[in-house]
Amino acid sequence: MLHGLLRPRRWSRLLLPLLAAAVCALAQAQAPVSPDSATDAQSRSLTEWLTRIHDASRQRAYVGTFVVSAGGDISTSRIWHVCDGQQQMERIDTLSGEPRITVRRNSEVITFAPESRRAWVDKRESLGLFPELLRTPSNLIPEFYTHRESGTARVAGHKARVLEILPKDALRFGYRIWSEQTTGLVVKLQTLDAQGQVLEQLAFSELQLDAPVSMGKLSRLMSDTKGYEVYQPRLRKTTPEAEGWRLSEPVPGFQSMSCHVREPADQAESPPMQWVFSDGLASVSLFVQPFDQTRHQKENSMVSGATHSISRKMGQHWITVMGEVPKATLEQFVRVLERIDR
After folding, report:
1. Low-confidence winner among 83-87, 129-133, 162-166, 279-283 (lowest mean pLDDT)
2. What is the 3-state secondary structure (H, E, C) of the chain?
3. How far apart are CA 237 and CA 250, in angstroms?
């Protein structure tokens, strides 16, 4: 199950909607978006900047084309986004690689593969939307990141303010964000390593704000699965302790967000437990499943853009940790993970 997810080509298909979610982060704050000014921008705290980014997607409908560059791979997609203040919907069509149509209503997601006539229903609430400022149990972002404004630039014909978010330790990456000056919408996003080099980038190449996008039309598309073989995995919410696991000590800044087990279609298969962590910006998923000698033969590590993953054998279990963080951070998660005597 996990080894398929970690193949670079398969992972790039998962990465695309996640990066789209970086632009369309689910907003819960209710403060209205106000026009930007140089004075206001310079006086904003990091929390105020990130809250403004959240609010931007709640207030605006838009249509655009965006390009994702990660680990030498380049993907292009078309997005339609609409919101009514309470719920958000979007459609994402891949324009490169295998055709995919992904439709999202808040955390509900369905992905259509027109060529194979298959569709996958899922929930994205635990996959790490950027920023997770409003979902984490407490806002620790200012304790682990600092920020600075870096002037203005034009992206896809829109003037944007440039914000750099810099980590205070070596456990996380930095970000450079282009926020549309009037609305606050993210129009470009880069993930940076410790030397300031770009690991991956998302940017709109064309963007129409306040576009006439129909929520009703997207709803009909989402429910129209006629002619498709639909796969809907069953998720069982649980706790790490109930599954016999814990961290001997916390990884600084990262808070537990969710834990679940995906019920297998084949009862002979042992599904992994997925334990999700976030520091409010970066997310880490920790997978645990029984060791299978026929499938788990070699410990390994992989990297694609800003996403690292490592796999290790721990007793009679196979551990895989992946996230948009340095490899050393994942190694620390593995080091403090321990089995509870039961």
Report:
1. 129-133
2. CHHHHCCHHHHHHHHHHHHHHHHCCCCCCCCCCCCCCHHHHHHCCHHHHHHHHHHHHHHCCEEEEEEEEECCEEEEEEEEEEECCCCEEEEEEECCCCCCEEEEECCEEEEEECCCCEEEEEECCCCCCCCCCCCCCCCCHHHHEEEEEEEEEEECCEEEEEEEEEECCCCCCEEEEEEECCCCCEEEEEEECCCCCEEEEEEEEEEEECCCCCHHHHHHHHHCCCCCEEECCEEEECCCCCCCEEECCCCCCCEEEEEEEEECCCCCCCCCEEEEEECCCCEEEEEEEECCCCCCCCCEEEEECCEEEEEEEECCEEEEEEECCCHHHHHHHHHHEEECCC
3. 22
pLDDT digits (tens, 9 = 90+) for 271-297: 789 999 999 899 999 999 988 877 776
What sign for the dihedral angle of Cα 291, 319, 260, 7? negative
pLDDT band at 59 (very low <50, low <70, confident <90, very high): confident
Per-residue pLDDT tens digits for 314-331: 989 999 999 999 999 999
pLDDT score recorded for residue 292: 82
Answer whether residue 23 shows pLDDT above 60. no
Q: Are 277 and 261 in contact (CB under 8 A)?
A: no
Tell me the C-alpha distance between 207 and 199, whole Å: 24
What's the residue count for the chain? 342
- pTM, two decimals, is 0.82
Task: Report the alpha-carbon distance of residue 230 to residue 119 in Å, rounded.
Answer: 5
Tokens of 36: 């930007």
What is the predicted pLDDT for the residue at 10?
30
Residue for token digits 């964000």?
177
Mean pLDDT of the 65-73 span: 90
pLDDT at 330: 97
CA-CA distance, 113 to 105, in Å (whole number)? 18
